[in-house]
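Hello,

Following up on my earlier ticket. Below are the two sequence lines again, exactly as submitted.
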Amino acid sequence: DAKTTQPNSMESNEEEPVHLPCNHSTISGTDYIHWYRQLPSQGPEYVIHGLTSNVNNRMASLAIAEDRKSSTLILHRATLRDAAVYYCILKIGRGSQGNLIFGKGTKLSVKP
Amino acid sequence: DAMVIQNPRYQVTQFGKPVTLSCSQTLNHNVMYWYQQKSSQAPKLLFHYYDKDFNNEADTPDNFQSRRPNTSFCFLDIRSPGLGDAAMYLCATSSIGRGPGNQPQHFGDGTRLSIL
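Thanks for your patience. The regenerated structure is below:
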């Protein structure tokens, strides 16, 4: 399975944008880039995913590098509720049943 | 409204006493997954069902079994729990409609299992 590399932790101030980086240099052409987050004592929550183009939804934006070897999850205005562990995961597009292989993730702290 | 429901949220069992965790979904998804998450670690996939087809991960201990009697329900059975099996157990679902890579997984809030 293709691997992702994320910083162990990041800090942000409330109401400021947050850019969470992810490296995935061994990504294959059919791998989708998924982001999930996990708040304390809850199950992981889907945030966003993309293949080649940048993506926006109500929670966040996903910026994908042109060579697809890295991506950045953008939270436009961090709130205290965004404090969580954020996982960047490559999801195989073909020949699988959608399994997620979690890495260690980035623990995001948000300061008031 | 909760779409993936896990009961109970907290489960205590005795060392060696079989225990069953349950998961139900209202999404009508064809794939259901079970993950184990130990303290301060990332979730680890144990196995999944694609419809009625069971798919075990290579390193999942034989002590862990699963049943899926219908689309909505899936059970995780731990035959003889050891102290090392204390963890959060997460159930998730997904639909493989437009290709597995393009579908998100929906997680329940987990069952935290303690072993006495």
